[in-house]
Design goal:
Blueprint lengths: L5 H24 L8 H13 L12 E6 L5 E8 L26 H16 L2 H6 L2 E8 L8 H7 L8 E12 L2 E4 L2 E2 L3 E10 L3 E2 L9 H19 L7 E9 L5 E2 L2 E10 L2 H19 L5 E10 L3 E2 L1 H13 L3 E4 L9 H5 L3 E10 L18 H15 L9
Parallel strand pairs: 2-3, 2-4, 4-15, 5-14
Antiparallel strand pairs: 1-3, 5-15, 6-13, 7-11, 7-12, 8-10, 9-11
Length: 398
């Protein structure tokens, strides 16, 4: 009978924690934007090579590392994104961002670090993984924050070739450190960009009947298109249109000849996401038809929904317990996440990693004041390592 790997993995991880926390602080102090994560990639590569691993480049930034069996019966991928956001940090931490206007406001410094830690721990049992015909692929992915995301580029480069299951974690400041949020089915939404441009005959506001009153028509687009769409699709799809920018005209007494509304289109249903484009255009055209304006609809597909496989969620639940953590149900979100592209290639799941200090403040992602309880570094590392190794035997910790 093969000896369990969990005790060894957890012991190695506990020894690594001081180094991993320092590593995460270094990444946090030197954030880099999408596809510009050169220093981050170099730091990861340096540490992985020091452990005897052989990271390889897929694009200008990011890395992929294989360990375990060369021709495995089962291959598990672990993914961590590495890019930061164009947001000014406001935490006041000693390891705050040293790059003005850029910071890790989404926790990708934690994601990269816990994947590194899991890889270093798994490297210590690589021979045993090989003996079990198991391989693990570490995917340090750039540009999650840039739609359609660096994951799609990695998928097209073959990173998911031969992968049976893929796991990831995402920081969640609404959960206490030590909690792991799990959910079967849709976890995040498709996130697309929509631009509606109207053109028509402008004129003086005293004579709207001699114009095509484009401003009024644009207002109808903003208010009516979301409502009409909500009546044309199954409400269980969770579809929502939200406008972020509306612009028309420059003077209060002039009806303009052009106007633009831009926003996002989100939904939880994969099938609807794949076919929503024609319906969106039809609805916009019908809404503006009474006003005689011309409408151009630009629909840029971003990322599909993350849909967690039930068996993968169950495996994460067992790994959570083995790591001495507490699994909790988590709601789905209408935020976008390019990990979904990897789930189009293999079964898998994303877990929510609790980062809130017990009794502490609840922060929000994508805000410059985000503070992560560093206990999450150990927890995320243990969860990914145990999930990858298939080690779910409960281990009592001191």
């Amino acid at each position: 009978m093969t000896a369990p790997l969990a005790p060894t993995l957890l012991r190695v991880i506990d020894d690594l924690i001081p180094e991993l926390i320092d590593f995460r602080r270094d990444l946090h102090a030197h954030p880099e934007l999408s596809f510009a994560e050169h220093r981050t990639t170099a730091r990861l590569c340096e540490r992985l090579e020091a452990a005897g691993l052989e990271p390889r480049s897929i694009s200008q930034t990011g890395l992929v590392v294989d360990l375990g069996a060369r021709e495995p019966r089962r291959r598990v991928a672990l993914r961590g994104d590495i890019d930061a956001l164009p947001v000014r940090e406001r935490t006041g931490l000693d390891w705050s961002s040293t790059t003005d206007g850029v910071c890790h406001a989404c926790g990708h410094d934690v994601h990269a670090t816990v994947l590194l830690g899991a890889g270093l721990a798994l490297a210590e049992v690589a021979d045993e993984l090989a003996a079990r015909d198991v391989a693990v692929r570490l995917v340090f992915q750039p540009a999650e924050e840039q739609m359609p995301g660096g994951a799609l580029q990695f998928v097209r480069a073959g990173v998911m070739s031969g992968v049976d299951t893929v796991y990831a974690v995402h920081c969640d400041p609404s959960l206490d450190v030590g909690e792991i949020g799990l959910r079967e089915g849709p976890l995040t939404a498709a996130a697309d960009q929509v631009t509606v441009t109207l053109r028509g005959r402008g004129g003086h506001t005293s004579r709207p009947f001699l114009t095509e009153d484009l401003t009024y028509a644009l207002a109808k687009v903003v208010t009516d298109v979301p409502g009409v769409l909500s009546r044309r699709v199954d409400p269980r799809a969770g579809l929502v249109v939200v406008w972020g920018r509306v612009q028309a005209g420059e003077a209060i007494n002039v009806i303009p000849s052009t106007g633009v509304a831009q926003g996002t289109l989100r939904m939880l249903d994969v099938e609807l996401w794949e076919e929503i484009g024609p319906l969106l255009r039809e609805v916009v055209e019908e809404v503006v038809r009474p006003y005689g304006v011309d409408a151009a609809v630009e629909h840029v597909r971003g990322v599909p929904p993350v849909v967690n496989d039930p068996a993968a969620v169950a495996a994460l639940g067992r790994a959570t317990m083995a790591a001495g953590l507490r699994p909790v149900p988590t709601p789905h979100s209408l935020g976008g996440e390019d990990f979904a592209w990897m789930l189009h290639e293999a079964e898998g799941a994303m877990a929510r990693l609790g980062t809130r200090t017990h009794g502490g403040r609840s922060f929000d992602l994508h805000q410059g004041d985000l503070v992560v309880d560093e206990g999450a570094v150990r927890n995320g590392t243990a969860l990914l390592a145990l999930a990858a190794a298939g080690e779910w035997t409960r281990v009592e910790r001191d």
